Amino acid sequence: MNELTLPLRNLWGRPIRTGLTTLGIAVAIAGFVALTGLTRGVEHSYSAGMEESGADLVVTQKNVFSLMSSSVPETLGPTLAAVAGVEAVSATLLSITTVDDAANIVIAAWPRRSFLWQTVELGEGRLPDDGENWEVVLGRTIAEALGKSVGDTVELQFQPYRIVGIAAFATVLNQNIAMVPLEGLQELIGRQGAVTLYQVRLARPVDATGIAAVKARLSEAAVDYEVSVTSEFASNIRLISLFQAIASTISLVVLAMASIGVANTLLMAVNERTYEIGILAALGWRPGRILRLILIEGLVMSLLGGAIGIGLGIAVMHLASRSHFAAGLMEPYLSASVVVEALISVLVAGPLGALYPAWRATRIVPAEALRMT
Amino acid sequence: MSPLIELLHVRREFDDGRIVAVDDVSLTIARGEAVAIVGRSGSGKSTLLNLMCGLDVPTRGEIRFAGARISGRLAWAEIRARHIGFVFQNFCLIPTLTGRENIEVAMLGQLAGAGRRRQRASELLARLSLAGRADLHPMRLSGGERQRLAIARALANQPQVIVADEPTGSLDSETGRSVIDIIAGLNRELGTTLVIVTHDREVAAVCDRRIEMVDGRVGGGGLAGGGYAPGAAGPAGAAVRHE
User: Could you point out which of A7, A71, A307, A352 has its C-alpha 20 to 30 Å from the C-alpha of B131?
Assistant: First the structure.
């Protein structure tokens, strides 16, 4: 027998209550993991997609709420291109639309001569011809989802586009993207002379110091705009910050509910086991040891619920990201930090809920408890 | 013999003073002594026992153990863990633990090492003729076996004093006698101090001295600063004195 025998026996002795409380914690942690993972997935999806296109820096409108609402004049392009260390710049106009009521699709439009076209890895077909505005290259996943292949037509923003190529990108964003010539999309959505952002490719070789130096020069050249490293630019988008804030708030509420669940369960357990706790006190168990007994019970339920919840959260995250609503916009993104945060949350929420019942247990007067037979 | 437990003008009130369970009791129990606390139901004998070992807190007065004034939960927990073994009428065993674990639970924090605790529990089980019942839960033991298990647990930390509250109250007379023989044997053979609350004359007879509680007082009148004179009879009174 050791310190864990009695708390484990107590939990095992009331399997339904222990199971339900553990399940409550598991659902809370699953919610936390799924919400946090998906929110960070959106951010990761944007950044990874941009990185895959070969750009090192991104220039957007300052303090932009959502990426799609960013507006940068095309006249900024030459200014950016003239900055020392810049190899190439490309305007990018982004738009989101729904195709055949089946899936969300991000449309990325680039000028004919953009270096971004050269980074497209074609699985089949070709790039749009010069002077042809209504040709499109689809990402492989969205093409498969729509059941389209080279030679078919797809309607984007009420305009029929002829599919001329299927791209084999690695990132979720780019797998679900439709790449079209810039002029046509500007005309379709009434954004002539403006684009969403500029993607900047730096002269090689390049390192972190070099990127930082060029970034500083670009910021001076384009003072009214936000210059971000590609891997970090998504975190500057306020909509994503809002998603994260909503996810954090919901997670906090759910975790608080789980904590209250633990408190309720253990409070009931302490009330039911007043006699048993009285025996332990009579045997000379110090208040600290009795406190530990109840805290361990809370901790065991929390850890068990946390482990189940992390697995459940990953499953929910994958299911949600595959739904028609989310496909192409978010990807499941489980980083070590999400798991660590989930574990820390559960290690705080469980024992926190156990604290009051545990304290109550230490206040039991043995003589009174032993009369409760 | 040096004093082990001393009570000085101890009073215990309940219900905001409307009930006085123990009233101005002063007594001394010496090391190695076997003392029976007798009296009618509700006379305050169990409350007195609880106060002697810190299971309850006096409203007034002072309690000393081995010459030191003891007060506070922590101090009493330490005293009970190291020096006091309990045997209760209703056994007070933990139902979710096996017989062996019920003994080991008393040694947690007192004897380091799970192996050593297990070995000590096995020795005690064998000594109380319970070796074959070690892995059974209390519900599967007979009344006599449960009380022997409780005695084994009381001995786990080699206490200086065994306190027993109506240890034969839930047993048939034959089993009760064997239990008392075991407890009295501890006093005779090991010199363990014995304090037994009982209303059974046979049980009281195995003790060196009787303290009779009447209406919350020793011998009906209480003996300030001194011990109870064996044989002194107090008036039969109401269960608990109400003020």
Answer: A7
